[in-house]
Amino acid sequence: MKIIVCGGDGFCGWPISLHLSARGHEVVIVDTLVRRAADRELGVDSLTPIRALDERLAAWRAVSGWSIPWHAIDLAHAYDDLLALLVRERPDAVVHLAEQRAAPYSMKSPRHKRYTVDNNVNATHNLLCAVVESGIDSHVVHIGTMGVYGYGSGGGTMIPEGYLAVEVPTADGQGRIEREILHPTDPGSIYHMTKCLDQQLFYYYNKNDKLRVTDLHQGVVWGTNTAETRLDDRLINRFDYDGDYGTVLNRFLMQAAVGHPLTVHGSGGQTRAFIHIQDTVRCLSLALENPPQRGERVRILNQMTETHRVIDLARMVSAMTGADIQHLDNPRNEASRNELPAVARSLISLGLEPTHLQEGLLEEVIGVARAYAHRCDKSRIPCTSKWTTS
Ligand SMILES: NC(=O)c1ccc[n+]([C@@H]2O[C@H](COP(=O)([O-])OP(=O)(O)OC[C@H]3O[C@@H](n4cnc5c(N)ncnc54)[C@H](O)[C@@H]3O)[C@@H](O)[C@H]2O)c1
């Protein structure tokens, strides 16, 4: 297959691009490197020393023999260039990861809110519009988030894979009709709101233009490297640890490695869904190799392998490493405790063998963090974004 990976220099996109290339697919990366610019804006750098994208690609060519061309096209603003690329390359599939993905970053200021909406919504819309205008039948695979369902209390209900069976009253009030609707969304940040808007864009283009779309509602990713990024130091994946982009479990593992207390926001009763980066990569190739038929509704899959409370993760890492746990005020506007029961069967039925949190893998991440502890700027660990001004 020929696959364009938009956002192919990112935390998920880089290992996904290498994995697809290693599986013999013809991969093309689109990325403006805006994520690296955000690091410069925030005065922080990946804990792991990631190479320039050209160097990464040269290293992959040397290691694997495969070439991956790269185009610096801004999905949100360079529509004509995107369209020209699609017409020229005629990809079988486009993987869409080119979005601003940090909830705290999206809440930093009005400028960051507006940037996140402008970037994410336009990127998604431009891609869908360009696929239709190009006349090609590319399968669009997007990574969304389990966070679109919100982190409310749960209320004892099960989150399905995208669609909810409901009964609605008939117009005469005499009977009831069964329907399947998109599960209602309940975004908890501007970032999550853009992912909810993405869902509507997918729904519309699928209905109107018969676009084939898979939307993977992913949990929080943990881990750093995959089979491919381990092949050479120059292929190392990024490791975000700062208060904006660092994800909770990787932050705990890094904090333990550098002798910083584990920072739990609020009570730690928040439940989140998790997935290891190696499984992210595998899920993407499973979704690509099992595309929906033309005319099929948007395929929505929950891409997560387990759920945990934040405090339980902190206790687990503390028990392994002896790190202290520090409770801080929660900057987010969210329930102090929630459940997150969700169905996640489809990817397993396609062949995913889930990687679960286990000591060996957790230690591996701590090993990466220890190896690069000297690169950690501890002043960047606190989360400074606040959800509300009061
Ligand atoms: N990392 C996680 O834990 C996680 C969890 C759930 C969902 N996701 C989703 O997965 C996707 C990838 O996440 P990630 O962690 O790799 O993020 P990332 O920020 O590391 O990567 C995104 C990449 O897209 C590029 N990009 C952003 N806007 C662009 C634009 N307009 N044009 C071209 N390139 C652009 C960035 O430069 C970056 O390389 C995101 O959509 C994110 O919402 C990630």
Structure overview:
The chain is of the alpha/beta class and 390 residues long. It has a single domain, classed as Rossmann fold (3-Layer(aba) Sandwich). Helices cover 37% and strands 18% of the residues. It contains 12 helices and 14 strands. Strands 3-2-1-4-5-8-12 form a 7-stranded parallel sheet, with helices on both faces. A hairpin with a 6-residue loop joins β6 and β7. α4 runs parallel beside α6 and α8 crosses α12. The model has no long low-confidence stretch (mean pLDDT 95). The site of nicotinamide-adenine-dinucleotide has 27 residues, from α2, α6, β5 and β9.
Compute the number of helices: 12
CATH homologous superfamily label: NAD(P)-binding Rossmann-like Domain
CATH architecture call: 3-Layer(aba) Sandwich
What's the shape?
globular
| Strand element count | 14
Overall number of structural domains: 1
- Give the SSE string: EHEHHEHEHHEEEHEEHEEHEEHEHH
Question: Secondary-structure blueprint of this entry?
Answer:
Elements lengths: L1 E5 L6 H10 L3 E5 L3 H9 L10 H12 L5 E2 L7 H11 L3 E4 L6 H4 L3 H25 L4 E7 L17 E7 L6 E7 L7 H20 L2 E7 L1 E3 L25 H10 L4 E4 L5 E6 H13 L9 E5 L2 E4 H12 L3 E4 L17 H5 L8 H13 L19
Parallel strand pairs: 1-2, 1-4, 2-3, 4-5, 5-8, 8-12, 9-11, 10-14
Antiparallel strand pairs: 6-7, 11-13
Helix pairs in contact: 1-9, 4-6, 6-7, 8-10, 8-12
Nicotinamide-adenine-dinucleotide binds next to helix 2, helix 6, strand 5 and strand 9.
